[in-house]
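Reopening this ticket.

The earlier resolution said the output was attached, but the attachment link was broken on my side. Pasting everything inline this time so it's all in one place.
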Amino acid sequence: MTVPAPRVRRRPAVPGRVLPLLLVAALLAPVGLLFAQTHRSTGDDRDLATRERLGVQYLRALGPVTDALVDAQSAAVSGRPVSRDALTAAVEQATTVDSAVGDELRSHDRWSGLRAKLEALPDRGITDPQAAFVAYGEVTDLLLALYRKVRESSGLIRDPQPDSFYLQEGIGADLPQAIVAAGRLADLTALTAQRPAAERPRAIAELAALRVGALGPATELGADLRAAVDNSESTELGANVLTPLDTYQRAVEALAALSAPTGSSGTDPGQVAAARLNAQSAAKQLQPVILDQLDALLSERVDGLDRDRWVAVTAAALGVLLVVVLAGVLLAARRRARRHAVDERRARKDSGAPPPAWQPPAAPRPLQPVGPGRPGEPERWGPFDAAR
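Inline output:
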């Protein structure tokens, strides 16, 4: 009697269960890695551009301080009363900006020290022109150091784009130095006219050095702004910047020519002072143009990085959605297979048909000699075949 062997429930193979999961992970891992790298890269670039815009805001506030300080120095050296209205208003405006963005730019200490020096200026040797020149020179040195501090802490000095880099170099380094040097040149010209004849040769040498110091930053400013225009994709930068730049450079060249001694008559302090005012007026017109163009470039960069981040987020979301759909398809196929197997077992049970029994394999056929048998062989093997 043949006893049917119990039917063993078949389990799906391990590779069949793990392979769909590995496929989903293989698709999801690159998507996540690409999104993380893009998000981190654009996030760093966006943070830098945002901090640079804070630096532009601070530089905008330092411009009126520079102009008012140079005007106050000229009045003090020439013996005129120093008007504190413009300087006080500029200091208050810069204090407001420092309170707003000083934590991010780490400028509180520098500005506090400079503000203390500015407020102490009216009480320091105003009756002595030479002492006033030295005192104001110390304060303007601190102001120029604050310009550099703001550029460094805001990241402007490390700007990765050539057009915005040259613009920040011009507005944060070249133009302030040129304005300060022009003021010192005009004031030293006035002091030289008051010195004894024996001190004139040394004063003329000092004027020559200061003239080079005034022309140098102005020349570098022109080179930086033209480099920014040449390396920019903006069609408005050149039209907006080059015209006031030409006006400023002509004013500086006139100042340098008038401050150069001619023959025995020397220089006319009044003409030099007027040329200094003309150059400073041209600088006032150029300064907001550079700041506006620089801020526009940085703002456009921030907007572009925001768009890139949204594109990355959208791409990652679509990738995750596709992976989820694929996982859903695989799970649905697996559930259908299970349901189909359950339905088959249920149908077999309802019909009363026994499960297929185990059948032993068929017996192998006896080996037969190849070719005709030898004489006498059938009789030899006949009893063996009958017994089998």
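Reporter confirms the inline version is readable. DSSP finds nine helices and no strands in the chain. Residues 57-304 form one domain.
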